[in-house]
Structures are given as structure tokens and as C-alpha cells.
Fold:
Amino acid sequence: MEFITSENVLLIGSTLLIAGVLIGKSSYRFGLPLLLIFLLVGMGFGTDGLGIQFSDMHTAQFIGMIALCIILFSGGMGTKLSAIRPVVLPGLLLSTVGVLLTALITGLFIWWLSGISWTNIHFAFIPSLLLAATMSSTDSASVFGILGSQKVSLRHHLRPMLELESGSNDPMAYMLTIILIETITLGGQVSAGNIAVELLLQFGVGAIAGFAMGRLTLWIINIYNRIGRSSNSKEDAGQATAMTSILMIGSVFFTFAITTALAGNGYLAVYLCGIIIGNAHLPNQRGIGKFLDGMTWLAQIVVFLMLGLLVNPHEMLDVAAVSLLIGIFMIIIGRPVSVYLSLAPLRRISIKSKTFISWVGLRGAVPIIFATYPVISDIEGADKIFNIVFFVTIISLLIQGTTVIACAKRLGLIDPDATDDDDFGVEISDELPTSLQTLTLTEQQLAKANTLRDMQLPAGSLVMMIRRGARYIVPNGSRKLQLGDTLLIIKEETTSKPT
Structure:
């Protein structure tokens, strides 16, 4: 009886998704990153767990590529130019110079570690750099997931800086990985000139293609909307939202494919395309955002479950000791040194901010996906590279992923007076010149006013609802406010939205 059938694939896949979501719900109790739960669920169902056999690196790489495109595009869509404008320079320094320094510093440590007699890894210098390069970027899925799920605001524009870094540093790590693989397979015949040309092509073509495809996608969406407005019967709003969202997903994969075909960096192009589209005014923007959020979560869940299935935990035990040393080195030395050196010219960034940036060097799905490239290229020791990267990723998610907010609190980088975008589930039309924001009351604010009547809200602002614990209260002027109350505020926009 054949085991691999369409029905069995659907059965196993649906079981993994349901189990991952249900088990993942408990992650909030223990403070574990949700994506780590999906990784562990995949391992539990894999070869050393329930026995599901999955070892196809080509399929894993292809699925990872699709998932990463969606994740990066969604991250770009959520990156507002107004938020990242003050942090463009440090964000780009971290995503280029920081990645390069992380790979170099960690590579040197791995090379030194390989020369010690008791270790069971014996990498030459270039393979050591290759191992480090696959782990040199922070993972956008992990950073977006952890920062997005926490209802706190960070001072000094740290959140947009970290999201910009994690969304834009994958191309650099990808390029380093590919160049080092070529150097090994070609026997060191790759010249510095060839590397420089390839880097220029990758980043130049990627940037141009990303911008061009973003503008082209907006033009196509505009044509689609014009067709809908000119038709005799009005198109259903839900259908229009769904079709526009699907059009964007098609644009994501087209952007990646055409950029790669032109020798550019597809991941950079996809991220920039998302930024261009996300900063334009689109009809049904809220609905499109929810669709993309769902797609992004599905992509993250699928890729983490798949990578969990791909690894054989008993093989990781062989490299556990050196993996632990490499992981701790990256957390304590490699990442902090690269952050401090790359941001050294920017004296306005405080020591506390640099320390926090150093700590949010989360590894996740991207390093593991990049670690499949040496395996597919049949690089000597590629299996050990993959297992070490997987082990280091788990260490990073366990140590750094569970302490991000605690670290921010310890360093005094959480802004208690900032508003967030929790909208209580209330939706307003995108065409209305208004926005929703929330404000959680602190002791300082209550000392100035403890009723809505006495609060000095900005002109054009109105409190729509009060949330107190699990209760929702309709506001009035004499209502006594309490510490921790969250106010839902509708605010009139005074500036026109971009077209």
C-alpha cells in the first residue's frame, strides 16, 4: 500500500497546522516565541518523533523561498517611510556592514574552534566563513513576530530600526552565502573584481527592480479599480479586496522571479516593492492588510513546521557542544561587536540602544533556509553546517526571543506614554479622513486628569470606547478613569494621504 498519497499529505499537513496552532497558544504562558513552538512541533512529528520522513532539501529550499518572499513583502508593506526616515542610515549600516562584520567575526571564531583538538568540527577558513554567513542576518519573521505581538512601544525609533534591519539584511547574508559557495566549488578562483561586480548587480538591479515593480503594481491596481468603477454593476467590496490582495501576491512572485533572472537580488526587490505599495493609499487597505497578515502567518508556520520536520535531532547531538559555544559567542560577542562597530560613526545612538539592538539579533527560519544551499551544492561538511545552524537558531530563540521585552524594560527603553495601533476590532472606511489609535493611561496622566472631561485631548480627537480589563465601557465626560484603562481614540487627519 502506497503511503505517500494526496490524502495522506493533506492529513499530515492539516494535523501539523492544527497541532501547531493549539500548542502555540500555550506559548504566551511560558513566554516562548510562537515560531519556536512551530519549530518544535515539526521536530516532534519528524524522524526522531512520530516518524514522519522528510529530507528533501530542494523542496525545503523552494518552500522557504516562497515563504520568505511573502514575509519580506508583508514586512515592507508595514514599513512606513515616516517611521523609518529617521533611522534609514543606522538600519542600512546594520543590514550591510553589520552582517559582514558578524560573518567575519563569527567565522574567525569557528575557524579557531576547528583547530582545537577536542572539537569534532574541522572547517577550513572559507567553510568557517560560509557557516557564519548563513547565520549572519537577523530573521525578519522572528523579529516581526515578536515585536508585532508585544503591546509595548520602544523609545528612540528602535522598533522601526530593528524592523528595517531585519527586513533588509537577508540580501547581504544571501550574497555572502552564494559567493562563499562559489569560492569553494570553483577552488578559490573567484576574484575580488568578480565579487564586487556581482554585489553591484545584486543590489543595484534588486533596488531598481523593487522600486519599478512597486510602481507598476500600483498602476495595475489603479487600472483594476477603474475597470470596476466603469462597469454597470458595482463590484462587491469583499471581492475587490480579495482580488487586489491576490494581484499583490502575484506581483510578489513576479518581482522575485524577474529580478533573479536579471541577476539581481530578488529578496531585496520584494522588500522594496512592499515598501512602495505599503506607503501608497489603496482602497480597502485594511482588508488587504488583514489578508496579507494571514498569508504571512501561514507562510511562517509552514516554513517553521517544515524545517522542524527536516532536521534529525539525534544528528544535532553530535555538534551540540560546538553549536552551543558558537551560539553563545554570537549572542555575547559576535553580534554586539558588529553592532557597536557598524554604528560607531553615529554617536547620537545611546549605549543602551546599541545594547538592545545587539540583543535583538534573533536567528530563525532564514539562516536555516540559507543553510540548505551548501547541502544542495554538495559542499564538504554541509550536513554539519545545517545541524549547527539549526541548533544555534534554537538557542537564539530560547535565550534572546524570550527576553526581548525584559531587556527593553531593564534598559529603560519602553515608552509608557506612546500610543499603539490596537483598534479594538473597530473598522472605519479607508476613504474617511480619520485614524484610530489607543492610549493606555499611566499614573502621570491620571495625576493631571481622572475624567474625560478634564483630559486635554488634541483638537479633532474623540474617545470612542474605554477598555478596562475584559470590560468595554461607553465613555462619558464624568466617567472616572483608572490606572491601566485603554482609550480608543478617533482622530481627524489634518494632512492628505499620499496617492
Notes: The chain has a mean pLDDT of 83. The two ends are 59 Å apart (CA to CA).
